[in-house]
Write a structure and sequence with these properties.
Layout (H helix, E strand, L loop, with lengths): L1 H12 L14 E7 L5 E5 L10 E5 H10 L4 H4 L10 E6 L2 E8 L9 H8 L5 H10 L2 E3 L15 E8 L4 E5 L7 E5 L3 E6 L16 H8 L1 H4 L5 E2 L8 E7 L2 H12 L4 E10 L25 E2 L3 E2 L11 E2 L9 E2 L2 E2 L7 E2 L2 E8 L12 H6 L1 E13 L11 H6 L6 H9 L1 E2 L6 E2 L7 E5 L2 E5 L4 E4 L8 H4 L6 E10 L4 E8 L6 H8 L19 H18 L2 E3 L6 E3 L14 H9 L9 H7 L2 H7 L9 H21 L6 E11 L5 E7 L10
Parallel strand pairs: 12-31
Antiparallel strand pairs: 1-2, 1-5, 3-4, 4-8, 5-7, 6-7, 9-10, 10-12, 11-12, 13-28, 13-31, 14-19, 15-16, 17-18, 20-21, 21-24, 22-23, 24-27, 25-26, 27-28, 29-30, 31-32
C-alpha cells in the first residue's frame, strides 16, 4: 500500500499541464550553460537558421579522393562537374552548439543527476557526465549543481554539447535541388526521398533530415510549422514521401494509412536470386504434383447445394470469385479453415477493443478481458491483380509472366500508368498473378531497431510472444537479371509492421541484395565500393588507435573502440580523460570555445593524439578533420537499401460525392532499371 501511495504521489507531482499552459524545456540550437558564477548564459538560435548551419556537399564518386587529398573547400568540389553529372551527392553538416533539454521523469525523482545521466543516456561514460556537471554544461533548471544532487519533480535538465551529425545522401548532380518534388498543390507536397535521409529529426540526425532540408531550401513554402508528416519511411529506404501542408490533412491521411482505410502502398525492391525460387525446393514447380511446400496454402473445392436447373440438392462447384483467401491481414480466416490445406499457424493474442490505441485512461482489467486468441498464418497463395484466388496457378506460371517483357511494360501491366499531373490513369492488367505471403513478425530489439519473422514455435516466453503480430505482403515479379542473379519485384504491404517487406523477402529466401541487416550484402555487386569501404574502415581504426599509457608507463591501450563511428559508438573513459576531464576551462574562455575544445567527437575526428586550442589555425585543422571523418563514416555505412516507395493511392470522394482515387507515383530508381 505504501508503494502504491508513493507511485500515486509521483504521478500527481509529474502530472502534465494542459497543452496551452505547458512550459517547454529550453532546448535547441545554441548554448544554455553556466557562465562562471554569474547568470545562466543563454544563446538560443532558431532552428533552420542559415547563419548558424554550415553544410558541405560532395559527389560520392569523388569522396574518397577528396579525403586522401585533404581538400574540404567547395571550389575544389565543383570542378569537373560533367564527369559526375549523374552521381549522387553527400551532405555534411559541420558541428554546432546544441542544448538537449527535458523535464524530469517520474522514475528519475530521488536519484542523483549523475546516476540518471549514466543510466538513461549511453553516449558517454560516467566520467564524462561528472565532468560536464562540474563544468556547468549540465544544469538543473538553469542552475549549476553537484554530482550528488537528487532530482525533484518539475526539474528541467539541460545538457549543452558540440553536436555532430552523420552525413546523408541527396539527389544526383543533374539538379541543384536537394530532393526531387514529384507533385505539389495547395494542400500537399510529394517528394522523392533519397536513401539514408530520415524524414524528421531523430537520433543523431537533426538538420540532416528531410523536413529540415526542405525548410532550409524553401523557407517561405516549407519553413518551420508549414509542413506536417503523413507517414514514415525508413531512413535507408528511398522513394515517395507525402507531406501535408495542414495538420488536419496530415491526421486524416495518417489515419487512412494506419487503419488501412482505402490506402494502398506499392514498393519496388531488388532481391537476390530468381524470385520466388528460393522457397520452391519442394513445390508444385516440381514434376511430381504431390510434392507441396509446407507453406503453400491449397484450396479444396467445396460443393454447394441449390444449383438451379440441376435438381434440388444437386452439388455444384463454388465460383472462383466466391473463394475467400486463407488469410485477412495475415490472420488465419477461421470461417474457411476447412477449405484450405497447408500453411503454418502461430497463436497470437488480439484485442477486440476498437479503441485499443485510444484507451490510455480505460480500465486495464476490461481491456485484458477483451483479449482473444487468434492465429497468425505463415504461408503463400496465388491471386490475380483484383484479389481473385488462382487455385491452379503454380510458381512456374508466376515466373514466366515476365519472360522477354521489358521492365516498364511489366510495370504498366502490374500497376497501370499515371500521368505527371494525376489527370489520367491507365488500368492495370488484373490477370497478372501476384504471390501473397503471410508471415508473423515481431520487434526483436526496440533499442537497435531489429526485427524478425517466422513461426516463432521456439518462443515460449509469453511476454516475448505478446509482440508477435500478423503480417501480409503481396509480390509481383517484374524482371530477372541473370548477370547479377537479382530480381526486380513489386511489393504491396497489406499490413504495416516494422521492416515488414524486408523481413518477408528474407523469409522467402530472397533478401534485398544490399540489405546487410536482413541477409543482403553491403555494397552488393560493387567491387570498387567494397574496396573504398574497407580502406575507409582501416583509416578510421588507425585514427582511433591513439595510444595512452598508465601511470607506470607499461600498459598501453587504444583510446577509442575499434570499428567505432561518431554516431553509434559510445565514448570511452580514455577519450573522456584525453579530451575533457583533464582540460579545465581557462579564465576568459567563452563557453562555446570551451565546449568545442573539450568535445569528445572532435577529438575522435582529429585522432586521440591531436591537440586542440582556441587558435584560428587549430580550429581550421579541427574543421578539416571533422569533415574527413564524417565522410569516412558515411562510406563505411550503408548507402541505402534497394527498397523504393513507388506509389501511394487513396480512395476519396469529390465535391459531388463520387468516388475518386488519388494516386502519387515517383520514378523507378537507377538500380531498378535492370538490363
Amino acid at each position: 500500500e505504501a508503494k502504491k501511495l508513493q507511485n500515486h504521489l509521483l504521478r500527481w507531482i509529474m502530472k502534465s499541464r494542459p497543452k496551452r499552459n505547458r512550459k517547454r524545456p529550453r532546448g535547441g540550437i545554441g548554448c544554455l550553460a553556466k557562465d562562471g558564477e554569474g547568470e545562466c548564459n543563454i544563446d538560443e538560435i532558431p532552428q533552420s537558421s542559415s547563419s548558424l548551419i554550415r553544410a558541405e556537399i560532395v559527389p560520392l564518386s569523388r569522396a574518397f579522393d577528396l579525403i586522401i587529398a585533404g581538400e574540404v573547400r567547395s571550389e575544389v568540389i565543383r570542378t569537373n562537374q560533367d564527369s559526375v553529372e549523374r552521381e549522387r551527392r553527400v551532405r555534411i553538416i559541420f558541428p554546432y552548439p546544441f542544448t538537449f533539454a527535458t523535464f524530469a521523469k517520474a522514475r528519475w525523482v530521488g536519484k542523483t543527476i549523475a546516476d540518471v545521466y549514466h543510466d538513461e543516456f549511453g553516449s558517454y561514460p560516467r566520467s564524462y557526465y561528472e565532468a560536464a556537471i562540474k563544468a556547468g554544461r549540465i544544469l538543473v533548471s538553469g542552475t549549476k549543481v553537484d554530482c550528488d544532487y537528487k532530482i525533484k519533480g518539475g526539474d528541467e535538465l539541460t545538457h549543452t554539447v558540440h553536436r555532430h551529425e552523420p552525413a546523408v545522401g541527396l539527389t544526383d548532380m543533374s539538379s541543384n535541388d536537394p530532393v526531387r518534388i514529384v507533385n505539389e498543390n495547395e494542400i500537399l507536397v510529394a517528394v522523392d526521398k533519397p536513401a539514408t535521409l530520415p524524414i524528421h529529426p531523430c537520433g543523431g540526425y537533426n538538420f540532416n533530415s528531410l523536413l529540415e532540408i526542405l525548410a532550409h531550401w524553401k523557407p517561405d513554402s516549407f519553413g518551420p510549422g508549414k509542413l506536417f508528416t503523413v507517414h514514415r519511411l525508413d531512413r535507408l529506404t528511398s522513394g515517395l514521401v507525402l507531406i501535408a501542408k495542414t495538420s488536419s490533412l496530415a491526421r486524416s491521411l495518417g489515419k487512412c494509412i494506419s487503419e488501412r482505410d482505402g490506402c494502398e502502398k506499392i514498393y519496388t525492391a531488388r532481391v537476390k536470386g530468381k524470385f520466388p525460387l528460393g522457397l520452391a525446393q519442394v513445390s508444385r514447380i516440381d514434376s511430381n504434383p504431390l510434392h507441396y511446400h509446407p507453406w503453400e496454402f491449397r484450396y479444396s473445392v467445396q460443393n454447394c447445394e441449390g444449383d438451379e436447373g440441376a435438381g434440388e440438392g444437386y452439388p455444384k462447384k463454388r465460383p472462383k470469385r466466391a473463394i475467400p483467401p486463407p488469410c485477412q491481414y495475415g490472420e488465419w480466416n477461421n470461417f474457411e479453415s476447412k477449405s484450405w490445406k497447408g500453411g503454418l499457424l502461430t497463436s497470437i493474442m488480439i484485442n477486440d477493443c476498437d479503441q485499443k490505441k485510444k484507451c490510455g485512461n480505460c480500465d486495464l482489467s476490461i481491456i485484458e478481458s477483451q483479449k482473444t486468441q487468434s492465429y497468425a498464418a505463415l504461408g503463400y497463395w496465388m491471386a490475380d491483380g483484383s484479389g481473385v484466388i488462382a487455385p491452379n496457378a503454380s510458381l512456374g506460371d508466376f515466373i514466366t509472366q515476365c519472360d522477354s517483357v521489358p521492365v516498364e511494360e511489366m510495370l504498366k501491366r502490374a500497376i497501370g500508368t499515371i500521368s505527371e499531373t494525376d489527370e489520367y490513369f491507365g488500368a492495370a492488367d488484373q490477370s497478372l498473378l501476384w504471390l501473397n505471403f503471410a508471415c508473423p513478425c515481431r520487434i526483436l530489439s526496440h533499442k537497435n531497431g531489429v526485427c524478425e519473422a517466422g513461426d516463432f514455435a521456439d518462443l515460449k516466453d509469453q511476454n516475448d510472444r505478446k509482440g508477435i503480430k500478423a503480417a501480409q505482403t503481396s509480390f509481383a515479379l517484374l524482371s530477372y537479371d541473370a548477370l547479377s542473379d537479382t530480381s526486380l519485384v513489386l511489393a504491396k504491404p497489406v499490413t504495416g509492421r516494422m521492416h515488414q517487406i524486408r523481413l518477408h523477402l528474407q523469409k522467402l529466401g530472397h533478401p534485398i541484395a544490399n540489405d546487410h541487416c536482413y541477409g543482403g550484402e553491403l555494397w552488393f555487386g560493387d567491387e570498387e565500393g567494397k574496396r573504398i569501404c574497407s580502406e575507409s574502415r582501416e583509416w578510421l581504426n588507425l585514427l582511433d588507435r591513439g595510444i595512452e599509457t598508465t601511470s607506470d608507463g607499461d600498459v598501453k591501450f587504444p583510446a577509442a573502440l575499434v570499428n567505432s563511428t561518431n554516431a553509434d559508438t559510445p565514448a570511452s573513459d580514455a577519450e573522456i580523460y584525453h579530451a575533457a576531464a583533464n582540460r579545465p576551462r581557462e579564465d576568459g574562455e567563452s563557453i562555446l570555445d570551451f565546449i568545442e575544445k573539450t568535445c569528445v567527437w572532435c577529438a575522435r575526428c582529429r585522432g586521440t593524439d591531436g591537440f586542440f586550442d582556441n587558435s584560428s589555425e587549430s580550429k581550421l585543422k579541427n574543421e578539416s578533420a571533422v569533415f574527413r571523418r564524417t565522410l569516412m563514416e558515411y562510406l563505411v555505412r550503408s548507402q541505402g537499401i534497394w527498397l523504393h516507395a513507388l506509389q501511394y493511392s487513396f480512395k476519396t470522394h469529390d465535391e459531388t460525392g463520387q468516388d475518386r482515387t488519388l494516386r502519387y507515383r515517383t520514378q523507378l530508381p537507377s538500380w531498378g532499371k535492370l538490363l
